[in-house]
Prior knowledge:
The chain is of the alpha/beta class and 378 residues long. The protein is 29% helix and 27% strand. The strands form three sheets. Strands 3, 5, 6, 9, 10, 17 and 18 form a seven-stranded mixed beta sheet that branches. It has a six-stranded parallel beta sheet with strand order 13-12-11-14-15-16, with helices on both faces.
Amino acid sequence: xxxxxxxxxxxxxxxxxxxxxxxxxxxxxxxxxxxxxxxxxxxxxxxxxxxxxxxxxxxxxxxxxxxxxxxxxxxxxxxxxxxxxxxxxxxxxxxxxxxxxxxxxxxxxxxxxxxxxxxxxxxxxxxxxxxxxxxxxxxxxxxxxxxxxxxxxxxxxxxxxxxxxxxxxxxxxxxxxxxxxxxxxxxxxxxxxxxxxxxxxxxxxxxxxxxxxxxxxxxxxxxxxxxxxxxxxxxxxxxxxxxxxxxxxxxxxxxxxxxxxxxxxxxxxxxxxxxxxxxxxxxxxxxxxxxxxxxxxxxxxxxxxxxxxxxxxxxxxxxxxxxxxxxxxxxxxxxxxxxxxxxxxxxxxxxxxxxxxxxxxxxxxxxxxxxxxxxxxx
Length: 378
């Protein structure tokens, strides 16, 4: 069958992306789902910094590649052996498929699935296949999803069934922003009620972490970012203190307001200065969690003695250390109860043809989550 998709053929084209147009909307051939795979009609796909990181080269991936990894849609066809889904099911796509058999999966840590990581790095589905092509030449899959498209073939292990009454534009956010941000707070850090928390970097993931800290019972939540409008939104959502990270006295202000620093700081910007700031606002004995995925070549100069003398903890968090089949229903339930207002993260809804201009807004830090809505072509 045919599908439209946003394809990246050259990494590192210059900004503005609205002019250089790194993503071309192309008609591709999409092969039927193989064993253990599913055909999904994509209805909404969030534009995430991880997509931008492939475009600008911060996260090197093989090209040509059809991008998009945070999405919701409807199951259209089942491959052989898929007997626990039904045609018509509403699903979100999770960008780390888990095999269920490797040591991390067997240890209850599917976010660290080894075959899943290998497949994502190679630009294939979990089983090693590529189902996208053009004129006989294969197109790589982005994180097992390639969701900036009308249709996607994905591993069954990339799908989580969600309630049919959940709007697609909201459902899509649970596949990456919510899993990563909320999971970092409740799974990776496991903050205690009454904790003091800081979030550095207020994109979709950072705001999800802020909301999670509030619902988990943090007594103080500090929001730090470079964009004042995002700080205003953070205050409206419940942040007890919101400061511009460019303020030369920002560390001292956070420490003064929190009695020496926060118990948990979350870096969600994917930049070394943000990680350094998160570490510096963490109190003695506290924990700094990083989930921002900077360029692999980036190095962080750490004062190592502080780890010992101050009994510090630094933790990485990938997809919020999540177990998708467990966590997605939990987070959706909190959203429906009004306790996790994920809809506040939605900046705007766009068409697929507007995606390059949306990359510019993302690169400038102007948006939280832009969602690409696929046309109804039935």
